[in-house]
């Protein structure tokens, strides 16, 4: 993969690098006396120096002769240096941060490169939105190597998204020079069944000689996994059992072991390499989804490395899994992922290989962070108006918008409710009997059942899906969110129509986000004006807003852990069993619409 | 690197592969009950099946459901299967075989892919000759992934070659779809000193996102090696000590451990991985130069694997070094180098992991060899007339062509002789006093000094270099060869002018080759009509011709081992100390021409 994420291409820097290594020109910067984590040979080498020029590594070893009068000398005595950490699969949108703010949040933790799949913004704003996010990312030194979303919409025909991505769109995106591959191919049923749409999207990526990333979330590791890998998919982050990860590695697929804010897979999947004596070159560490408070409280790849070592993975192996292995996965190891001559001078200073305390971060030879503080200044980036005004709802939302008329002549109605499961992605279809009140169906807090409405918000079609959700524990008030996977329509849930209307309108007013309302008062709101998904505030501020919102959730009675996540998955029609999109209730096992009332046919 | 060396691109085969893995379509061929050498995880897995369709692997594991009525079933019970062997650095010309015949010689030994550097034919015929060799190679199933010669001529200004390769030629060649990178950059002095010519040639390759292969033959592993690697060079086969190889691996360079016909490096360099606990992903096995008799008597990569295991390398590690590591070096691991879904079905059946007895070879899913016998038929390839008539010598060669007039008025003359060293590439400048006979200088078998002449043979310039060589032990007769590195002019050596003229004219008549003559009789001749370097005869036949020639050499008194190699290096002006090209005697330490007579200035 040709690297455009560098200060200077190697062919422009090579004469200088040769001159610096040879001692004919001074290095711009040298590091002395470091304990080098050598990810090529899996060793720690003592008392190593590194000479840097034009953003690249000129020499590794004894570099005294590379020092000139103007060379900046960094003494690393007592410190380890490792290649900058790479996150091979991540959705920036999950952090609720703009790409620039995300970079500021993770760089001080040692991350120097990420491979984001901008699946969420693409669902809202299409390939154009992806380009804007790329522009947002380009202002930061973080190497942000995008992959093109492959499944927009996630479940065609069952929801209205802001966009559609087909093979031609993918082919076009592969021509963008900062695009390095295809985003997670979640449509594994399509791949397995030979769908032209799915295979053509993968094919457009392979033809461009770029990397296809995967999402194979089934426990089956036989014919299905083989069919999936044989179709050209190179990596997958959906292993939840050690045997999943091991099966993938054995089949030549990069097993991206995940430790995100909501997905704590490492404890199990680490066993693939701690309980088996295998070559680990096909194992990587990735975050997938990280919320702002995780970034500020725990960190990013440094946290995942810490967790990996806690799970018994050798520290040098763990660092390989966050550096050279990921670079090899993306075939960018000639440019990234090791501290060796010619590579981009992306590296991390560490106090130890247990806590992974990052003291200094270099990208392209520049010191971009020190002692947890970001040093590089980012120029501002203004998303275009279109991105900041993504709430396109046909009719004004009033309390009446939430009225659910009961079938005539009935006192009570048995309905299909979506029963959520704490901290799990799946849900159940639960049948609940609601009393008819004034000819309408209402939330029933006694039964922990909340009225839920999804408003189409992309093309002002007026589409509106109505259902009931069970399990949030909310006693009085309403919640709204535009983070509602994957179409990110406006999702509103509550005990009464007035609060629901207020929650909805609060978000419409601020361009999208998440809000909690009680008795006509906004208790908490995290505005996410960029596509209704992100905010350009710093991570700490966003973490504060989210913490306030969490408080508000509790105040109105919510008993769930990570309620945002559980709420955001209510419309995700590729997960079992029952989901609510803007088009209605979807039976996600049979893939068909079902009516609210049980016993009826759609 | 996009793979064009396959039956069908993956994007055309993916639907079929998914259908076969899923059991909806039968496989074309399956292998059952194999002991799989899994090079991804470095394990041997028992009782594994492989399903194949459209030249690719659809599934690995339990493949019973992939068998249909027309599926060819291969029972591999008791056998190992491994990915087909890859040779990451090789000169086909050294085998004296055409590319097609070379393929026939190595495929039965388990080789399924090679990365040839057609340096010799390019010196004679230029990029056009490289293209012809590519066409020759294309008729065989062997994946022949060419790299473009980088150093033509090897030492500009000191010899006349048939061609010149500059940065623009390299840039053009990178556009040829079967060209995967740049041939060994032997001009490491140019790289280290920042020569534009050398850096632009490397740069043209990097810009095309292709692989730059190396040749760094100095024992220095500090500034020089760093400068060389920093300039973008990814691999090197010139390690002769374990510390050379280890230094390269630590610096992120693929250390290609060599075991050729004349270069037996493995005994030493294997210690880089047997005496150090290091990750071996940066270690590869390669052959570089293999003579026809080695191919027929010992084999190819199977022989090198055997040698690696003899030197204490773990067999699975050794196989990784001849498969996935090489594929990763060339960033073609998504297509080659492992038995995993989606990859080209290139694989080898082995009886054991010690002798590496190859019983069956598959390329693109077809059985191409069985029990040492090549099964695939190759269509003929006819090199164009230009390639078959490469002897362009200005004047007719007669005994008078070899007359060396002595300086007037001297009875004896002290001259510079080239003192060869048995089985070593270096030589010495040795001063020898010759008696003047009839006003001429002649060979002196008493002192083991032979008259030697190099005739320019590419552009009929009439250039002719004259010198004396010491150490071959020849008593009566003459030798001639057009295998004379790297310019491959016509090199003639002998005790008398008549035999020398006959040896030269014998080669002119047969289009080049190697000949031995005594008393007006041709004792042995190996015609190499393709560029004066190769012959389209089968390996066994060529080995026979070479054996006959060896006999002739002995008959005329030669005492050296591998006399061909020693003779062929006489003109190689990039090796120390004294060499003879068609332009004259070259002091290869100071890089200047020197006169035959000592004490004179050039």
Task: Give a description of the structure.
The structure is a homodimer of 602-residue chains. In chain A, a hairpin with a 4-residue loop joins strand 29 and strand 30 (592-594). Chain A starts with 9 loop residues before the first helix and ends in an 8-residue tail after the last strand. By secondary structure, the first copy, chain A, is of the alpha/beta class. Helices cover 27% and strands 27% of the residues of chain A. Chain A is built from 18 helices and 30 strands. Chain A is elongated, with a radius of gyration of 25 Å. In chain A, the strands form 5 sheets. In chain A, strands 1, 2, 3, 4, 5, 15, 16, 17 and 18 form a 9-stranded mixed beta sheet that branches. In chain A, strands 21-20-19-23-22-25-24-26-27 form a 9-stranded mixed beta sheet, sandwiched between helices. In chain A, strands 9-10-11-12-13-14 form a 6-stranded parallel beta sheet. The interface between A and B is large, with 74 and 74 residues.
Q: Total helix count of chain A?
A: 18
Taking pLDDT < 50 over at least 5 consecutive residues as the criterion, the unreliable ranges of chain A are none
Fraction of residues in H or I helices of chain A: 25-40%
* DSSP summary, beta strand count of chain A: 30
**Most extensive chain-chain interface:** A-B, 74 and 74 residues
Helices and strands of chain A: which structural class? alpha/beta
**What is the overall shape of chain A?**
elongated
* End-to-end Cα distance of chain A: 49 Å
Q: What kind of oligomer do you see?
A: homodimer
């Amino acid at each position: 993969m040709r690297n455009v994420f560098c200060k200077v291409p190697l062919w422009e820097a090579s004469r200088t690098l040769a001159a610096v290594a040879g001692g004919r020109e001074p290095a711009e910067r040298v590091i002395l006396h470091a304990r080098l984590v050598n990810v090529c040979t899996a060793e720690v080498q003592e008392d190593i120096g590194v000479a840097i020029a034009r953003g690249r590594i000129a020499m590794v070893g004894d570099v005294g002769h590379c020092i000139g009068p103007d060379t900046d000398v960094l003494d690393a005595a007592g410190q380890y240096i490792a290649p900058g950490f790479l996150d091979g699969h991540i959705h920036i949108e999950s952090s609720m941060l703009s790409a620039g703010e995300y970079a500021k949040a993770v760089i001080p933790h040692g991350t120097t490169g990420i491979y984001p799949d901008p699946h969420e913004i693409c669902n809202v704003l299409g390939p154009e939105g992806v380009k804007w996010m790329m522009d947002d990312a380009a202002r930061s030194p973080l190497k942000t190597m995008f992959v093109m979303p492959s499944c927009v919409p996630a479940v065609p025909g069952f929801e209205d998204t802001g966009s559609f991505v087909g093979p031609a769109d993918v082919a076009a995106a592969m021509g963008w020079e900062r695009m390095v591959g295809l985003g997670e191919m979640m449509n594994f049923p399509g791949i397995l069944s030979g769908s032209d749409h799915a295979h053509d999207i993968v094919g457009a990526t392979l033809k461009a000689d770029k990397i296809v990333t995967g999402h194979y979330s089934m426990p089956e590791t036989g014919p299905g996994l083989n069919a999936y890998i044989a179709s050209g998919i190179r990596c997958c982050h959906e292993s939840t059992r050690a045997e999943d990860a091991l099966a993938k590695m054995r089949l030549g697929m990069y097993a991206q072991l995940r430790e995100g804010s909501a997905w704590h897979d490492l404890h199990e999947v680490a066993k693939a390499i701690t309980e088996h004596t295998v070559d680990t070159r096909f194992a990587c560490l990735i975050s997938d989804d990280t919320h702002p408070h995780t970034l500020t409280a725990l960190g990013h790849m440094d946290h995942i490395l810490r967790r990996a070592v806690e799970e018994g993975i050798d520290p040098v192996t763990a660092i390989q899994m966050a550096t050279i292995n990921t670079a090899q996965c993306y075939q960018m190891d000639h440019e990234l992922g090791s501290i060796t001559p010619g590579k981009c001078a992306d590296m991390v200073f560490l106090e130890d290989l247990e806590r992974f305390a990052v003291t200094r971060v270099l990208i392209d030879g520049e010191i971009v962070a020190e002692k947890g503080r970001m040093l590089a200044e980012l120029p501002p980036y203004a998303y275009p108006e279109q991105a900041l005004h993504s709430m396109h709802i046909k009719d004004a939302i009033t309390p009446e918008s939430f009225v659910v008329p009961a079938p005539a002549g009935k006192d009570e109605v048995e309905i299909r409710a979506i029963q959520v499961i704490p901290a799990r992605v799946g849900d159940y279809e639960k049948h609940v009997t609601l009393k008819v009140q004034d000819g309408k169906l209402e939330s029933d807090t006694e039964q922990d059942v909340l009225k839920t409405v999804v408003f189409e918000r992309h093309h002002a079609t007026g589409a509106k899906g109505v259902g009931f959700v069970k399990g949030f524990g909310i006693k009085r008030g309403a919640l709204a969110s535009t983070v509602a996977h994957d179409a990110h329509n406006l999702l509103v849930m509550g005990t009464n129509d007035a609060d629901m209307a207020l929650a909805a309108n609060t978000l419409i007013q601020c361009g999208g986000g998440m809000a909690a309302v009680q008795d006509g008062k906004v208790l908490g709101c995290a505005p996410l004006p960029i596509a209704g998904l992100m905010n350009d505030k710093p991570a700490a501020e966003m973490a504060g807003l989210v913490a306030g919102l969490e408080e508000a959730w509790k105040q109105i009675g919510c008993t769930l852990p990570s309620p945002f996540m559980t709420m955001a998955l209510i419309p995700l029609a590729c997960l079992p069993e029952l989901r609510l999109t803007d088009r209605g209730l979807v039976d996600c096992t049979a893939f068909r619409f079902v009516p609210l009332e049980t016993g009826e046919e759609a």
